[in-house]
Amino acid sequence: MKPADLRIDAGRLLRRLEALAQVGAIEGGGCCRVALSDEDKAGRDLVCGWMRELGLAVSVDPVGNIFGLRAGTDAQAAPVMTGSHIDTVRTGGRYDGNLGVLGGLEVVESLNDAGLATRRPLVVAVFTDEEGARFPPDMLGSLAYVGGMPLAEALDVVSIDGRRFGDELARIGYAGSAPLGTHKPHAYIELHVEQGPVLDAEGITIGAVEDLQGISWQEVSVTGQSNHAGTTPMRLRHDAGYCAAAIGTFLRTLAGEMGGGQVCTMGAVTLHPNLINVVAARAKVTADLRNTDELRLQEAERRLAAFLAELAQAEGVKIETRRLARFEPVRFDAGLADAIERHAARLGYTHRRMTSGAGHDAQMLARICPAAMVFVPSVGGISHNPAEHTEPADLAAGANVLLHTLLELAS
Ligand code: GLV
Ligand code: MN
Ligand code: MN
């Protein structure tokens, strides 16, 4: 068979997606495999087993990133890397991240079956803690891999449940010894579900991702005073619960006023003591701000800071912020995005250029090598939700585009 005629085995890809989705399965078809949990370990064990069955040389680095290497005919050549993550948010879908990893394994198995060798080695990577929902920032594993966070700092990150990253990583047995930055890639291509509405709404199969928006995460802590809900006049309150609500409302207003694709989310709130008849003494909320334009993102951050200062003054509370993540917008490699579109066209799939609204490991890899992403549609644009779905034909289309883009890069 000519390499150009090669296609992935869609049934096999679906079977692996289904098997991995059973690890940490939750109601509604989704997954809970939060980073460095027992479920994350079980998912890693499954994927590492598949890597070994496919003949890949498996290595793990000190932040738990996993690499499966398929040798090339030129042992000196830098490898072409693909991959993604298998950790999920607590109420995650079955495709976010998993498709990129298992799509990579499917490419390897298709090449093995066809007896096709590539000049450059191929590496399938599984990056640790892409979600960052337990151990912020997001993309922590790939950030450390590219040298954007010192190892000691990564290991000392504390989770929202009070555990140290290094301790949890050792506990699940994935504190590896391969040097950080191992297998420095010639190029990186990541297959992922869009997680947004664009491809589904337009009926287009393949997105060639050319840029990705900047991300600003902060935790906001409000300290007021608890008091009796019945006896305390409104003018004498220092109400952290009210402040939490006001911050949530402000974020929605800010996004509306700024327009232009600015998005703002308050995704987490905790109140203390969290009782019906007690004015809350403390609140912790999160602010997730994103924009493709760095200056606009900075403007959103400034406006949030000004609002918090006014609110603290008006309510007589203390408001402090802690930075959880900050990444500037990223432009991917235009030549790679062109190649993705060229392969999509040759394979007969509709395609378009697009932006990524979500964060991805590819944005970290773009710091050290040419990188780009292949998107496939998310039905209804639903993601970070157990109902996340992509049609089997679209999963297969994405894996076929990944196959041929990798083949070209590795030749
Ligand atoms: C990571 O998945 C993010 O975009 O929040
Ligand atoms: Mn993802
Ligand atoms: Mn995600």
3D architecture notes:
This protein has 411 residues and is of the alpha+beta class. The protein folds into two domains: 3-213 and 329-410, Aminopeptidase; 214-327, Alpha-Beta Plaits, CATH 3.30.70.360. Helices cover 36% and strands 21% of the residues. The protein is built from twelve helices and 16 strands. Strands 1, 2, 3, 4, 5, 6, 14, 15 and 16 form a nine-stranded mixed beta sheet that branches. Strands 7, 9, 10, 12 and 13 form a five-stranded antiparallel beta sheet that branches. Strands 8-11 form a two-stranded antiparallel ribbon. 50% of the residues are buried. The mean pLDDT is 98. Bound molecules: glyoxylic acid and manganese (II) ion (2 copies).
Summarize the structure.
The protein has 411 residues and is α+β, with helices and mostly antiparallel strands. The chain has 12 helices and 16 strands.
Provide tags for this entry.
12 helices; binds manganese (II) ion; Alpha-Beta Plaits; alpha+beta; Aminopeptidase; 5-stranded antiparallel sheet; 16 strands; 36% helix; 411 residues; 9-stranded mixed sheet; 2 domains; binds glyoxylic acid
